[in-house]
Amino acid sequence: MSPLTEGQETGVREIDAGNEGLQYLLQRLFAPLVECRRVAGPCDFRACTKIQAIIRYTGRNFAGQEAVMTDADYPNGNDHQRHHASLLDGLKQMQAECVCAERDSASVRAFIARWTTDHLQRCDRPFGRWAVTRRVLPPVA
Ligand SMILES: [Fe+2]
Predict the structure, then answer these.
(1) What spacing in Å lies between the alpha carbon of 124 and ligand 1's midpoint?
(2) Inside any domain, residue 27
(3) Collapsing DSSP states into helix, strand and coil, what is residue 90?
(4) Residue 39 forms part of a structural domain
(5) What is the pLDDT of residues 63-99, one digit of tens each?
(6) 18 lies in which domain range?
(7) Long-range contacts of 135-138 (CB under 8 A, 24+ apart)
(8) Domain-located, residue 61
(9) How far is the CA of 134 from the centre of ligand 1 (A)?
(10) Residues with CB under 5 A from ligand 1 (ion)
(11) From the CA of 64, how far away is ligand 1's center (Å)?
């Protein structure tokens, strides 16, 4: 496992890879001197492109995880899916409120970190334990 997510493994390959990818993306997006991809002219702080990149990545990632849960007939899949949606809703709300991931990077990062910690404990680890116990997914190599 990558040092990015060491100690956060769930035992489900798709989830662990997705979480590692999110941490990698966040490191890149919030690295010093990494600027927004603005369309043209000065930013009006509507639909922050850095937040949009996080929404795009996590949306794809969540869809993959949810397909794994569906295929495995995971009984708590709906709750897990609702919690995924809460991150996307929160990020979209930030965009609607003209939050800028550069100007307000601390609050954006704090929101994602809080959600990620909560999600790992509340959703990803229980799914990992369930999947390993029931042997419904191939073991992580
Ligand atoms: Fe999840």
Answers:
(1) 5
(2) yes
(3) helix
(4) no
(5) 999 999 999 999 999 999 999 999 999 999 999 999 9
(6) 13-32+47-133
(7) 136/72, 136/73, 136/74, 137/12, 137/13, 137/68, 137/72, 138/13
(8) yes
(9) 18
(10) 123-124
(11) 10
